[in-house]
């Protein structure tokens, strides 16, 4: 695959000087409309062999483009903040907004490449890692991110000479040439070729850059960036990959419809059980083994179903230093300028901590679906994207508990009226709540589809009858305690 790239590609100084003004003009002609229109963001991944001049090429790119709308993110071994969260967390955290461009050194491919070269993972784990990366990049592409991936190549003898120069030049700084990489040149090239073959997709292509000649290298990088941004501008909306059709046929009863709303709990029994499970939760959260898991709790349900009350009973026995409650409302402008899961990845807790979501990423397949805020393809695609997000969490050792709190239409009306009549509860009822109530049947269908498509063995839904608040609160506490007791 690298045969052409291994050939000595040359460009004279004269040719470079002639091309440089034209290339700078082309880059700005592509970048400035991207900044103005804010239709998409751009990720430029710079990978390949040490000594190939990746840093020099990017420095020249900065000189040719509007640097105010460029950011360079370099990733090495994860520090504590990243090490205590799933591997993709730091890349999600740093995603650029629409109109902006981020250049990435040490991307999500680097640890996979290193681990395979040094035989820390077998071929099966390597393949699974590539599959996960393809899904991640497809999700970004569907959310209006232009992904350009560059692999810089060098013959072994040229790399050796470059590394000598880098080592000499950097002797006075804390930078050392990676001679181990040179030792594994053949394995690195073969593994890099496999990565490129298996992850070069239409939505995230690889470009192999011959790097023997610096001028040729930099022009090739700049021309590819300019052309790709221009094509994306002309292309408009990206093509979406939709989930399989929702189960069709005659009207059916869903798992949400089948919740038994008659379940109750008397006050005396409630007080006893509430104290029991709150004490148990306090003890579980203090265990040393809690540092090996992070806890993500999701609360969804009908409006006025008692999510806030259940959360208040849940956090009462917890140390405030180890939990945070996230009340999710409409996305801000900053959040709308990035893929929709971005704002939730930023809120992923470190291990040993709890993140409690009062509404969550499921709003895309509930409110955004029913109210038309998300396109048909977008919310259909979201089921798989949500499942993959939750699998990323659980594969890293997190415990994910999801609760759907259900009440009847009649009970909701009663609670709405009570909120309007009680001064300290009036802030809980809005005109939007009344509008949503008019679409009760549509929300019921959406909730049923949500549970069907996203209740997995690693992140199952717990369906809670909330007609009786005491029953619901105890059910939530008991479920969390049971899950944590099993995990810890």
UniProtKB/TrEMBL annotation:
Catalytic reaction(s) noted: [phosphate](n) + ATP = [phosphate](n+1) + ADP
Query: Among its keywords, does the record have Ubl conjugation?
Result: no
Pfam families membership = PPK2 (PF03976)
Q: Note whether Nucleus occurs among the keywords.
A: no
Any single GO molecular-function term of the entry would be: polyphosphate:AMP phosphotransferase activity
Provide the alphabetized UniProt keywords: ATP synthesis, Transferase
Mention one GO biological process in which this protein takes part, according to its record.
ATP biosynthetic process
Residue intervals of the Polyphosphate kinase-2-related domain:
17-231, 265-485
PANTHER family, per this entry?
A: POLYPHOSPHATE:AMP PHOSPHOTRANSFERASE, POLYPHOSPHATE:AMP PHOSPHOTRANSFERASE-RELATED
User: Mind telling me what this protein is named?
Assistant: Polyphosphate:AMP phosphotransferase
Q: Which organism is it from?
A: Roseibium alexandrii
